[in-house]
Specification:
By secondary structure, the protein is an alpha+beta fold. The chain has three domains: 155 residues, 2-Layer Sandwich (Beta-Lactamase); 84 residues, Helix Hairpins, CATH 1.10.287; 152 residues, Heat Shock Protein 90. The chain has eight helices and twelve strands. A five-stranded antiparallel β-sheet has the order 2-1-5-4-3. It is rod-shaped. Bound molecules: adenosine-5'-diphosphate and magnesium ion.
Length: 460
């Protein structure tokens, strides 16, 4: 498409053209109305007065005869009203009036005529137009009564010319303005198109040009840039996750391979057995990791949001605490819980149990300092329009600067590497919170960690 065709096809230009047409129509209608009201009506009025005068003169003639009509004409001819009169005899000779001779006229009994008129304007003579009515009187006389309509005609001309100029100016300004606006618009759209092409070509750090005028194009560009930021960070996250996954799966697979090879080399049945058994264990752990990754992905994609139902969080807390109490006691510690009534949330029971399980698992693993036993409390409370479930321990806690990082996949703090785990527990918890439109807060328990699940309260 040529540049000009593109310009004419922009919505701005079409809008400008439409407005131009509307504007021209209304200006035309307005001026047309003024024109009609002034010139046409004035001319009609003139015609009516002429007709009335002809009627009056004819009456004079009928009532008072030739003398009467001559008197009246002579009286009226002298004033400077711009009226023209002529009474001529059958031979066309002037009897009375301010016209010197009969103007050319059709051979009708009565008719409207227009003819040029020489007017004395002091030093110069001007040619004006006169409009008159001509009628035959009894006795072969010709009567012509008219007006100098030069001023009227000139006035009409001025108005007509004004209409043409106004329309022409509106057209030029409208078209020019429309083209200018469209060109500006088109230039910016082209810039955005160009930017998106380079981004598609692989320059993910490219962004849409923003003018700073916060008009609709700027807002569009800003929204697109926000989207690009999001895509970029998601892609970076993906890259990191896949390299983490690759790294985390490589270690156990290498271990399995080494063990199986060693067993094959030794050839003893006992070694075979031992290698197979530990392979089963390692595969279990690999499967666990995969399942956790899949659950996180599903929770983050918000896939099961439609499956959410009203659940009582206190029953979830009771169930999970019952399961973990023996484990805490086995470590010589304690696990106590305290829940308020009416902890209703819209949720997925299975996923919420899993999230709480992951927090308790961490509390048992990391919730005690060297030489101490885990003292864990679980509380469920309503706070305004939210339900807050807290798992608190008295371990080393998580340093503030690491609190966002630990919710990422595979992130484990160095101090925790001696304990079993894959670093996916808190990722799943925050994925589940995202699905529930809630949040996972990690806070200081002085000492220890207070992990809070904050969920919207469901009022059913
Ligand atoms: N209650 C806690 N006290 C101290 N550190 C914790 C606690 N919970 C989690 N962490 C830290 O956060 C990291 C990530 O936790 P998580 O995702 O559950 O992985 P994992 O339990 O497999 O190590 C842990 O490795 C640990 O360093
Ligand atoms: Mg964990």
């Amino acid at each position: 498409m040529s540049a000009r065709a593109k310009l004419l096809r922009t919505s701005t230009f079409r809008l400008a053209a439409l407005y131009l047409i509307l504007f021209a129509l209304s200006v035309g209608a307005l001026l047309g109305y003024v024109y009609w009201n002034t010139t046409v009506l004035l001319e009609r009025q003139t015609d009516e007065t002429i007709r009335a005068e002809v009627q009056a003169l004819a009456d004079q003639y009928r009532l008072r005869g030739l003398r009467g009509i001559i008197d009246t004409i002579q009286r009226r001819s002298t004033d400077e009203s711009g009226s023209v009169y002529l009474l001529a005899d059958a031979a066309g000779q002037r009897i009375a009036g301010n016209l010197t001779s009969l103007p050319p006229m059709p051979q009708a009994e009565a008719s409207w005529i227009e003819f040029p008129l020489e007017v004395d304007k002091g030093s110069a003579r001007e040619r004006h137009v006169a409009r008159a009515f001509h009628t035959d009187l009894a006795g072969g006389f010709d009567l012509v009564v008219g007006r100098d309509v030069e001023a009227l005609r000139q006035f009409g001309n001025i108005i007509r010319r004004t209409i043409y100029y106004a329309l022409a100016i509106a057209l030029v300004l409208g078209l020019g303005g429309g083209l200018l606006m469209s060109r500006n618009f088109l230039r910016r759209v082209d810039a955005i198109t160009e930017a998106s092409r380079t981004i598609m070509a692989g320059n993910m750090s490219g962004r849409m040009p923003v003018q700073g005028s916060s008009d609709e194009l700027d807002r569009l560009a800003l929204a697109l840039n926000e989207m690009l930021d999001q895509i970029e960070s998601l892609m970076a996250g993906m890259k990191e996750v896949s390299s983490n996954v690759a790294h985390d799966l490589k270690t156990p697979l290498t271990r399995i391979k080494a063990r199986v090879e060693a067993a094959l080399r030794s050839g003893s049945e006992a070694d075979y057995r031992a290698a197979l058994e530990s392979t089963v264990d390692d595969s279990d752990r690999l499967l666990e990791t995969f399942n956790a990754l899949l659950s996180i992905a599903r929770a983050e994609a918000g896939q099961s949001r439609s499956g959410l139902a009203a659940v009582d969080a206190s029953t979830i807390i009771a169930d999970v605490v019952e399961l973990y109490e023996p484990m805490a006691e086995e470590e010589g510690g304690s696990l106590t819980s305290e829940t308020q009534a009416g902890l209703s949330v819209m949720g997925d029971r299975q996923l919420l149990s899993q999230a709480l399980t992951n927090l308790l698992d961490n509390a048992i693993k990391y919730g005690a300092r060297e030489g101490e036993t885990p003292q864990i409390t679980v509380t469920g409370k309503i706070d305004g329009d939210r339900v807050v479930i807290t798992v608190a321990d008295h371990g080393d806690g998580i340093p503030p600067e690491d609190r966002t990082r630990v919710t990422e996949r595979f992130v484990r703090l160095d101090s925790s590497r001696t304990k079993p785990g894959n670093g996916l527990g808190l990722s799943l918890v925050s994925g589940v919170m995202k699905l529930h439109k809630g949040a996972l807060l990690l806070e200081d328990n002085n000492p220890g960690l207070a992990a809070r699940l904050v969920l919207p309260l469901h009022r059913g």
